[in-house]
């Protein structure tokens, strides 16, 4: 992390440059596409670059699993390695592109990732860009991803990460440019802000991006509450704030909080939005002339923005910058491909495995049928905000590769279109169902690939999005996929359902009718290879659900309602179909709490806890099965109190064990793990008895039904309410 001394040095250097600029030069340097100022030695630079799960939109790069897939790994160490690889490739591509004069969009070292919004509603189209529905998991993964992106050099940033979209932002996409997200102070602090706070205070994230919408009446990119009171004053953020793209013109064009562009840029500037993604900040000269803002504020914003470029070593003398040694040869290396495959393997979630049909033995299968619209769909591998891989391996291709040389035949059918009722205009409805049934007839086992791709869920305005806004209308398998599932499972052959999607869908029918169900999310360019290795037992699945999968019987709140009541595992009282934190393995684990330590001293029985205490939980985990496997030990905390969450994830540890081996892990719970925000947004350690559950899943009823295993539990007591 950059030192305080280095930050001050960069700010001083930036201030000297700003002092030499004309007013016109200043305002144009605050747009995402900043032109060169040759007389000051400032090259052209475009701040807009993307790296959600790999360097995006700029040619060849490693395409890792989509963010929601990375979240399913529950692996903090992996996220940092992915971030590190992404910034290595970003540096490499920057070196090659700038060497040959390309200073354009998607070519810089300021990456607008990660997206740490909370995936509160499964219909939200951009949810697959996030780390799921849980603030704690999002915080832990986001922190490590940012640390990987930005590096550990005390003087230079490897690349600059950006936490987005600040804050209280998760749809609906269709109305985001004029929508007012209303939430109470308790939900704001308990759900929507923790990940942003963690990235600012723990990871030192260099940039924060505002959201399109309003929050409690204030436009997010011009919000005094969010940008000044909380981000700057309360959290001490020292980086720069950027608007979302063309969001400032929404102030007058859609939100109606200002009358014209001049008032809009003044509102954004006055409340701390430093950089404009768009072209509206040229109105700052007019805003200053009319007394709506000041050059002092403009200069302060520009110092913050230029300081980032000094920290990156792309302004000023950077001859001692170790990252300058990264040239284009570091793009798409064997090491990066290996990490990508590892990430894909860890992201796949085994939801159901009746009679342990998986893994399959290829030597005993004469013909395997691979059916479905996602069987050979490259789009279903990657999600959105993606780069271009040098190799894509679809499910069909991965299975063919896995059975090569075994004598097993692979038969293929699309079965149906991803969302249409027929494959071509002149076809009849369901025109590939008969072909799919023919494949079933001659197959010993069938892999049925259903789900979505980024043409069905994504950002409002994305080209080709079938639903226009990007949000899903419901959680049903689209088009004829439900009928295809019914027809294929009726053929009397074992069916392995593989769902590729970036969000929750109804999988009730798959559970009832198929022999096994795998969730591959959007597993990256190596996804088909990874899935085949899981199916044929080269690797035991270890992914966990980063979101709740709902039953068709569950009732979802209105997507415009930002109250957390009834939403996600933390607040829903109905039984879900597949719970957050759930995922099966080919092997089995035994978890046992060995001891508890309070502030370093071993305790047992009734544990009295107070402000400032730290409770360490030592858990011995043994692999009692036949496969090597990864296991995620999860600790959930609950307090039976009005308006309190049902339970919350507050600690986790991912480890990998060989068959027969064991390891003891430590989970630490501070007073903040037990504290709750009240209706005024005040964090308090409340008087009462808290339950702590530790295991490989949630302690809820449905998880117990699915796994047959109960978590270990114990209680702690807080004798009096104390503000944290």
Describe this structure in words.
With 724 residues, this protein is α/β, with parallel strands linked by helices. The protein folds into three domains: 4-322, Glycoside hydrolase, family 3, N-terminal domain (TIM Barrel, Alpha-Beta Barrel), CATH 3.20.20; 334-547, Rossmann fold; 589-723, Immunoglobulins (Immunoglobulin-like, Sandwich). The chain contains 22 helices and 26 strands. The strands form seven sheets. It has a six-stranded mixed beta sheet with strand order 9-14-13-12-10-11, with helices on both faces. α18 (508-513) links the parallel β13 (495-500) and β14. α1 (4-19) crosses α12. The mean pLDDT is 97.
Write the layout of secondary structure elements.
Elements (H helix, E strand, L loop, with lengths): L3 H16 L3 H7 L3 E2 L10 E2 L20 H6 L3 H24 L35 H16 L11 E5 L13 E2 L3 H8 L1 H8 L5 E4 L3 E2 L2 E2 L4 H11 L5 E3 L7 H6 L5 H10 L13 H6 L5 H18 L21 H14 L1 E5 L13 E5 L7 H4 L12 H9 L5 E5 L19 H9 L3 E7 L29 H9 L5 E6 L7 H6 L2 E4 L7 H9 L32 H4 L17 E10 L2 E3 L3 E3 L4 E10 L5 E11 L8 E10 L4 E9 H4 L1 E2 L5 E3 L2 E8 L5 H7 L4 E7 L3 E2 L1
Parallel strand pairs: 3-5, 4-6, 5-8, 10-11, 10-12, 12-13, 13-14, 17-25
Antiparallel strand pairs: 1-2, 6-7, 9-14, 15-16, 15-18, 18-21, 19-20, 19-24, 22-23, 23-26, 24-25
Helix pairs in contact: 1-12, 2-12, 4-5, 4-13, 5-7, 13-19, 15-19
Provide tags for this entry.
single chain; 724 residues; alpha/beta; TIM Barrel; Rossmann fold; Immunoglobulin-like; 3 domains; six-stranded mixed β-sheet; five-stranded mixed β-sheet; 22 helices; 26 strands; 29% helix; globular
């Amino acid at each position: 992390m950059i030192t305080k001394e280095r930050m001050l040095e960069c700010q001083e250097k930036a201030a000297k440059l700003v002092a030499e600029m004309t007013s016109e030069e200043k305002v144009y340097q605050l747009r995402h596409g900043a032109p060169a100022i040759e007389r000051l030695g400032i090259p052209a630079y475009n701040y807009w670059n993307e790296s959600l799960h790999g360097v995006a939109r700029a040619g060849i790069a490693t395409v890792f699993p989509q963010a929601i897939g990375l979240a399913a790994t529950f692996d903090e160490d992996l996220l940092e390695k992915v971030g590190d690889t992404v910034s290595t490739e970003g540096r490499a591509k920057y070196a090659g592109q700038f060497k040959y004069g390309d200073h354009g969009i998607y070519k810089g070292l300021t990456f607008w990732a990660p997206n740490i919004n909370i995936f509160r509603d499964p219909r939200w189209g951009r949810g697959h860009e996030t780390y799921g529905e849980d603030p704690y998991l999002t915080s832990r993964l986001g922190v490590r991803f940012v640390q990987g992106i930005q590096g550990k050099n005390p003087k230079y940033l490897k690349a600059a990460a950006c936490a987005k979209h600040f804050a209280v932002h998760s749809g609906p996409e269709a109305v985001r440019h004029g929508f007012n997200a209303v939430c109470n102070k308790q939900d704001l602090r308990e759900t929507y802000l923790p990940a942003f706070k963690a990235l600012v205070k723990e990871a030192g994230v260099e940039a924060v991006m505002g959201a399109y919408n309003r929050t409690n009446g204030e436009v997010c990119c011009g919000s005094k509450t969010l940008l000044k009171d909380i981000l700057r004053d309360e959290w001490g953020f020292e980086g720069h704030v950027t608007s979302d793209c063309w969001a400032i013109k929404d102030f007058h064009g859609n939100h109606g909080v200002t009358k014209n562009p001049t008032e809009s840029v003044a509102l954004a500037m006055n409340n701390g939005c430093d950089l404009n993604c768009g072209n509206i900040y040229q109105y700052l000269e007019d805003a200053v002339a009319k007394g709506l803002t000041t050059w002092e504020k403009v200069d302060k914003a520009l110092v913050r923005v230029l300081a980032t470029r000094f920290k990156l070593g792309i302004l000023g003398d950077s001859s001692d910058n170790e990252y300058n040694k990264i040239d284009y040869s570091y793009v798409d290396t064997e090491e990066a491909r290996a990490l990508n495959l590892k990430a894909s393997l860890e992201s796949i979630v085994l939801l159901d495995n009746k009679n342990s049909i998986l893994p399959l033995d290829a030597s005993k299968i004469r013909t395997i049928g691979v059916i479905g619209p996602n069987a050979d769909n490259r789009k279903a591998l990657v999600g959105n905000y993606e780069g271009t891989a040098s190799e894509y391996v679809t499910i069909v291709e991965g299975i063919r590769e896995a059975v090569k040389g075994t004598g097993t035949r692979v038969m293929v059918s699309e079965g149906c279109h991803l969302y249409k009722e027929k494959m071509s205009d002149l076809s009849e409805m369901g025109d590939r169902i008969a072909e799919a049934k023919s494949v079933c007839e001659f197959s010993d086992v069938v892999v049925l690939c259903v789900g979505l791709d980024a043409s069905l869920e994504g950002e409002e305005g994305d080209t080709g999005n079938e639903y226009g806004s990007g949000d899903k209308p419901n959680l049903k398998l689209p088009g004829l996929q439900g009928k295809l599932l019914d027809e294929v499972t009726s053929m009397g052959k074992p069916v392995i359902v593989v769902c590729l999607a970036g969000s929750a869908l109804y999988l009730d029918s798959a559970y009832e009718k198929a022999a096994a169900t795998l969730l591959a999310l959007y597993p990256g360019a190596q996804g088909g290879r990874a899935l085949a290795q899981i199916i044929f037992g080269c690797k035991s699945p270890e992914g966990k659900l980063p979101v709740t999968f709902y039953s068709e019987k569950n009732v979802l709140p209105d997507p415009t309602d930002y109250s957390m009541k009834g939403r996600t595992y933390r607040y829903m009282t109905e039984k879900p179909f597949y719970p957050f934190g759930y995922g099966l393995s080919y092997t089995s684990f035994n978890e046992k709490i060995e001891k508890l330590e309070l502030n370093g001293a071993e305790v047992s029985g009734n544990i009295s806890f107070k402000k400032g205490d730290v409770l360490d939980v030592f858990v011995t985990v043994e692999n009692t099965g036949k496969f090597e496997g990864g296991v995620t030990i999860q600790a959930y905390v609950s307090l039976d109190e009005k308006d309190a969450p049902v339970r919350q994830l507050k600690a986790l540890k991912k480890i990998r064990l060989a068959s027969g081996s064991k390891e003891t892990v430590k989970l630490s719970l501070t007073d903040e793990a037990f504290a709750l925000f009240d209706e005024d947004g005040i964090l308090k350690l409340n008087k009462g008895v808290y339950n702590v559950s530790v295991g490989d899943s949630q302690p809820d009823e449905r998880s117990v039904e699915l796994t047959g295993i109960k978590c270990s539990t114990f209680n702690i007591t807080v004798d009096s309410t104390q503000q944290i």
